[in-house]
């Protein structure tokens, strides 16, 4: 027999997530390595990636974290054959917006990978909250 104790006198209070786990102040800076298809993008797009402030969209889960910000223009049109990805691969969809692929990442699905989040910065991506500002630096 295992005793579990008396029933509590009151229900367990609901935790306010914004108070218990407040988002970090300011932007989160992530280190990026060049991606295997960085040459598919214009020089201006590669510069924009590092010079712009990005925000995490509400479209984020274990598959990927979609970013909101300026369009990253391609130098090369079309799709490529699906390629394997590593955690942190940043693929850019046809609308020019990047998605950082995470734990349950798929193959690229024809979207080129402009950069890869450095392994030391990858845990910070999983802790981002929707609307939070993100900036990038060269690894």
What does this structure look like?
The structure is a single chain. The protein is an alpha+beta fold and 139 residues long. It has one domain: Beta Barrel (Cyclophilin), CATH 2.40.100.10. Helices cover 15% and strands 27% of the residues. The protein has helices spanning 17-20, 43-51, 119-126, and strands at residues 28-34, 54-60, 64-68, 89-92, 98-101, 113-117, 133-138. A 7-stranded mixed β-barrel has the order 1-6-4-5-3-2-7. A hairpin with a 5-residue loop joins strand 4 and strand 5 (98-101). The chain is elongated and about 70 Å long.
Q: In percent terms, what proportion of residues is strand?
A: 25-35%
Q: In total, how many domains does the architecture comprise? A: 1
Distance between the termini: 57 Å
Q: State the fourth-level CATH superfamily.
A: Cyclophilin-like
CATH fold descriptor: Cyclophilin
Supply Rg: 19 Å
Measured as a percent range, the helix fraction is 10-25%
Elements, N to C (H/E): HEHEEEEEHE
Number of strands: 7
- Biggest pleated-sheet summary: 7 strands, mixed, barrel
CATH architectural category: Beta Barrel
Shape descriptor: elongated
Q: In CATH, what is the class? A: Mainly Beta
For the largest sheet, list the strands in their spatial order.
Answer: 1-6-4-5-3-2-7
